[in-house]
Amino acid sequence: MAALGLRVPGLGGPRWVPALRGLGALGVPGPGGPRRAMAGHNRWSKVRNVKGPRDAERSRLFQRLAQMLRAAAREGGPDPSLNPSLAHVVEQCRARNMPKASIEAILRGA
């Protein structure tokens, strides 16, 4: 029976640890030497699950603001001091943390 495995209680339900490897996963060295338990998480999952959707939403917002910038520049010219609607849209862009270089590039292209 010992060759099949050893039942270790108290580890979140029934768990079988091979008897030939010793209890290395629990910190006790066995015939295979000490084994380190893995953490069970990593940083990449946080980046993928949290930052990815947030960046996608920010990208959609910037695309919408860029469209508004182009439309306002077409209607009244690319100078915000002479075009109040463009000045308002530029103010919205800056309030939403759109990079200044992006705003200037959109106005140059319009």
TrEMBL record:
Pfam families for this protein: TACO1_YebC_N (PF20772)
GO cellular component: mitochondrion
Main location: mitochondrion
SUPFAM superfamilies, per the entry: YebC-like (SSF75625)
TACO1/YebC-like N-terminal domain boundaries: 42-107
InterPro entries: Integrase-like_N, TACO1_YebC_N, Transcrip_reg_TACO1-like, YebC-like
Signal peptide (UniProt feature, chain positions): none
Lineage top rank: taxon: Eukaryota
Subcellular location: Mitochondrion
PANTHER family in UniProt: TRANSLATIONAL ACTIVATOR OF CYTOCHROME C OXIDASE 1
Family per similarity comment: Belongs to the TACO1 family.
Name of the protein in its database record: TACO1 oxidase
